[in-house]
Queue: 4 jobs
Job 1
Amino acid sequence: MVSITEQTAILAKYLDLNQNGKVLAEYVWIDAEGNTRSKCKTLNKKPSTVDDLPEWNFDGSSTGQAPGHDSDVYLRPVAFYNDPFRKGDNIIVLTECWNNDGTPNKFNHRHECAKLMKAHADEEVWFGLEQEYTLFDQYDQPYAWPKGGFPAPQGPYYCGVGTGKVYARDVIEAHYRACLHAGVEISGINAEVMPSQWEFQVGPCEGINMGDELWIARYLLQRVAEEFGVKISFHPKPLKGDWNGAGCHTNVSTKSMRAPGGMKDIESALSKLAKRHKEHLLLYGADNDMRLTGRHETASMEAFSSGVANRGASVRIPRSVAKEGFGYFEDRRPASNIDPYLVTGIMVETICGSIPDADMFKEYARETSD
Ligand code: ADP
Ligand code: MN
Ligand code: MN
Ligand code: MN
């Protein structure tokens, strides 16, 4: 047996080899469980636009995305990023899944979302997502928690500094750098309230880019964590008891909200959101009822609420926004395990208006039937 240090040294010899002009393209897709999967393809040259990238396919019967007798699912490239693992000209390709009969695959919510984003492109809708997540070790124990016991109660861990107050900073730092290299608009990171829970923020991103970049940031996190032997959970309440859940706060603004006087547009958006509270919650992540209890900095699911600087409301208007009279608002309801295409899609549908050929509910129903 060679040691891990020796293995790393051996692998390094091969990573330095000339690729003879070929480019490795890691095709990423979203599977039936909301995880990412990927496989690699050799290209003869680096693409200049996404249209240069060939369509590909995979065996959907192995991922629960197609029946065995008609198993091909097609991968249509929609965006590509620099590959922080292979580096050089190598790329990571985000794809949409399509069925053999020309319809979007059951879990492809991007397709419908993109139509809404395109229809409302002139409103220049920006999003910023705060992705919270929890680290587990290879035995499925919360990462670095005492064996068979619990760490001290919450308090010192949020943005914590020092031994016993913060865990796995190396994983988080590596992920941050990987996102920057890839070209993901990562805007910050912080340690969360529960020990071994962290957050990264992506945004502001306009329209469909928000979902794309969040999915790639999640993919990069899984890849980095894999190297450290750490597991990532996006479950909204990974541990029962007096431990914070995990959300994906969704910050939103339109062009008019960002301009002086934009507060009236924010208020009008909030009254539209209040009317569709239940519909939104259906798309805001599985098991979110375990998290939205009215405790641990959440609002209960029963009724929509909003308030300036109120972290116990469904929607918070940041203090600085209220002061200036324009800016953005934060929807605190989405869970950490959302599909960002469903959430940004219904957000635009509600605040900017529905369009005849796109319906985020139809999308959601397509996923949850059978
Ligand atoms: P919190 O105080 O809720 O923890 P964070 O700093 O974690 O806030 O996240 C704020 C998010 O808001 C960031 O992702 C940022 O990109 C996003 N954001 C800032 N301005 C806007 C805007 N005008 N429209 C949409 N999102 C915005
Ligand atoms: Mn935050
Ligand atoms: Mn947070
Ligand atoms: Mn927040």
Job 2
Amino acid sequence: MNFRDTLKINREGHLEIGGCDAVGLAKSFGTPLYVMDEKYIRDMCAAYRGVIEKEYGGRGLVLYASKAFSCLAIYKIAKEEGIGVDVVSGGELYTAIKAGFPADKIYMHGNNKLREELEYALDCGVGTIVVDSFNELDLLDGLAAARGKTQDILFRVNPGVEAHTHHFIQTAKTDSKFGFSLADGTAEKITAVALGKKNLRLRGYHCHIGSQIFEKESFRLAVGKMMAFMADMKAKFGFEADRLNLGGGYGIWYTDEDKKITPSGYAAYLETIISEVALRAKEYGLKEPFLLIEPGRSIVGEAGVTLYTVGAIKDIPGVKKYVAVDGGMFDNPRYALYQAKYTALLANRAAEKPEEVVSVAGKCCESGDIVCANVMLPKAETGDILAVLSTGAYNYSMASNYNRNRIPPVVLVKDGFAEYIVKPQSYEDLVRNDVIPERLQ
Ligand code: LLP
């Protein structure tokens, strides 16, 4: 199991995270509750940043992909750790700016950025916009001109490397809603167009080959393809890109089917990328570009644990045992969306041996509302505190108010202290934007 120095079983046999007893957290803050371990997040930021400093002379920037978990406090932590962030919507941008995050270290993504989002980004002084379509290029150029600005941009490129958890494939696949394909020549075409834009400064290229990837080779391959393309653009247009953003995607531990990687293990992914960049730069006679990576899941994923209280238990002999909790797909839709796998344990009886396979069900009015299927637990009883591990990424950020359930609060734990970074929603919050038109009064 994923035990490390900030996640352990204490003398009472309770799960402990960031020095806080999980049962105590459940008592003080209620359940369902997202718990985020600050030290883990900071260690991950520092590990990636350290490699850029030591192995690449500081000529790069780690961008936290904030879609994984976005709230004011996380941007503060990213700022303190000296990294940048990527945002993908006006809402994430607003949150970052509101937290005092330096705009010049923000990269803005999105396959269909709205006009108002681009205007907002320009007005905030966002450092770099990663352009994703021909429409966006024209729109952005016009908006920048109207403001008398020259905006730095990258292009999102689809390099034809597709990676999944334990394998990757090379494709000439152009069927993606994201970016400009190398294979069909649109990446080259847009480069030519951009070089003629007066209010945009093309700095380089971006790619993101997938998520929850363990295979280092897939990143190496992406570097090779991107740098070959950069060499081609230099030869054709005399344009030498000075930035290369290789996206995120590093896999994390959810269950023992996944590798358990330490912060220094993640650093090794970046070392692989750096050595490939250096190799290809030499091969193609390019200068080594300013390097960017965008890890999201690997920074916050394993930092998170969700705590629930066990309610109804339904045993269907010979079929299945359901252990229902007070959360569900409204706080974690990843099983419903991707049949995601998780590890669960009883936080109040964490030292007990698991003895039966159960499915942890949520409380939503929907059969597919499962938090995790087929997990091993000790015999659960109503009132037990159930912990699901590795829920820090794409859980809170994908939560909803389905069935008008309240999105759980988030507490940040460190050295035995716990405090809210997202407060609980109230029922009043749920109706805050509801309006009854006069004719229905
Ligand atoms: N950069 C770009 C352009 C991305 O599209 C993504 C993720 C990342 C960086 C961060 O990737 P990471 O390091 O977190 O793997 N909702 C899904 C994950 C969607 C990821 C989308 N893009 C899930 O719950 O698994």
Job 3
Amino acid sequence: MTRVLSCIQPTGEVHLGNYLGALRGWAQGQHSVAGGQRDAFHGIVDLHALTVTEAPEVVGRATVELAAMLFAIGLDPDIATVFVQSHVAEHSQLGWMMECTVSFGELSRMTQFKDKSARRESEFVSAGLFTYPALQAADILLYDTNEVPVGEDQRQHVEITRDIALRFNHRFGETFVVPKAVTPKAGARVMDLQDPTAKMSKSTGSDAGLVNLLDDPAEIARKFKRAMTDSDGEVRFDRASKPGVSNLLEILAACVGEPPESLATRYTQYGPLKTDAGEAVVELLRPIQARYHELMGDRGELQALLRKGADKARAVASVTLARAQSAVGMLPA
Ligand code: TYM
């Protein structure tokens, strides 16, 4: 059996990068395929969101909305386990053990920490933002995870998780499964439509460059029409010298399931490419938006699904935590 785990933070709206880079793969990856059973766990990582939370009432609302979105994109509560990280206390408990298994130097080299702390400049930079990858390692290792479906930007965090697992196993004996990151062919790094050299992100960039899954069709079309391209007028897939056009081609490729290089041969102008990419995204999101609004109409049901998810998650996580504590030789309570 292949155990799959991946998580998303409840901070702001879910955007097209999250969807094409990760969530779509989660929905596909929950089903067993020829050659093997798959068992998928997906966490709404509210403890991670606390690293940048400074106001009350925000994180809980974002958690429910994100739960509705995860079911709307197709995670089936009867197949996949969808849970809230703070509902499974083992994450915090193993998180501490992971902090003691990773070095200050390793954490200092994380590009996400460097970027995020630099962006927060004069704002409060929490210690949690720095130790974040240790908690993420706990998220992954608690479930004996084989595959972690993520966008390209999370590769480094999965790499450090592997290093932590190997170090722990070396020190205390075989305890953790060593996971690997899995990224999609197209869409692993969706770029900002206004600044195609920066990844699409909820915390950076302009609204015009960010496509949220709940944007209405006219807004999506407008954002694509205004997408930044270049002035040479040639449609070619070349990320280095034509980042804007290549981003549009890759988004379209991810929507229609064809390679961006072959899509490029069908266009001689930027206008039609922008229109087609926008339309493809609108069509992709239409059913998701409808399901999302339906699900948000029944908060009680959402909470019940999350409780069921937490119970299933805890059953696995508690066994792994106990194994890790016993490997270290901690005195049982
Ligand atoms: P988060 O919440 O920032 O993003 C969720 C997922 O979306 C992917 N993603 C993108 N993919 C392509 N293009 C983009 N522009 C883009 N932006 C975001 C991310 O790669 C991610 O897969 N640290 C994680 C959350 C986390 C986690 C985990 C992930 C906590 N514990 C355990 C996997 C396993 C994060 O902040 O993702």
Job 4
Amino acid sequence: MRETETIWMNGEFVDWADAKVHVGVHGLHYGSGVFEGIRCYETPKGPSVFRLREHLTRLENSARLLHMELPYSGDELRAATHELVGRNGLPECYIRPFAFYGYGELGVHTAGNPVEVVIMSWPWGNYLGDENAQSGIRAKISSWKRVGANTIPHVAKATGIYLNSMLAVHEAQRAGYDEAILLTDEGYVADGSGENIFVVKDGKITTPPLSTSILPGITRETVIQIAQDLGYVVEEANLIRSDLYLADEVFMTGTAAEVTPVRSVDDHDVGVGPVTLELQREYLDTVRGQSERWSHWLDLVELGDGVPQGARAEA
Ligand code: PPE
């Protein structure tokens, strides 16, 4: 992780090195936290956080699903995010808001523990590797099943749930693959360890529905809208592993992974295809403010006086 200047921690900016917690925090022992992954991109109008409000709404929903009361409103977290990006001075960065039960009582029940909230930002390239974003990744179906909807609410981006992803990606990489694809207990395709999945077959695009225990990805929803706008038919439907093997194209989406082609699944070559590359190009144009149609998704970072940073730099 590349360190930056400052971290927003419980309402204050602290130096990167000082953003510490005690080893007794509840979240560390039981994975009782919720988080977000967001990206800020450089656009012609200045640094712009992509779909910040949607990410903060998902953070609030994740907290609600855990009966966790966030001590800050979405507007406060949005302002803090803007200020953090401005202070760290990085026009392109990854942003990680994170809320967890802090120090107070140990024991699985969370009573007696304050909710702590932090926001970090740092530079982060493509999750699956910048080269893989062009040439595609090799994926493997995991022997670990995606946690079911009645095990942990998968709609929540909760920290503890990521043990499921960690086990899957470790297994895949130990076997020489780049990324894991998890199936549900029933055998339907769910998501990658940190990405949603799409299949292209005969010009039609299909992605698993929310009922397959996926995280409701904001990039997933973004790519569905962009694809429909380009005239593609996009369907949310159950997929089985053979659909991946026989696909014309497979790709993954995520804030960190952006749009990444999958070139093989379990050694069945799929190849990197034109639909994936077109959607990847359109997605990157959109997040970097090159597409008027979707400019409402860009949340321009403003400095304290309300002047967008880019405008100030030009002045
Ligand atoms: N599924 C999972 C399991 C997941 O973790 C992510 C995000 C997605 C789908 C895509 O969601 P969205 O980013 O809203 O399009 N994974 C984050 C990286 C996880 C990590 O910290 O590592 C991310 O992309 O930020």
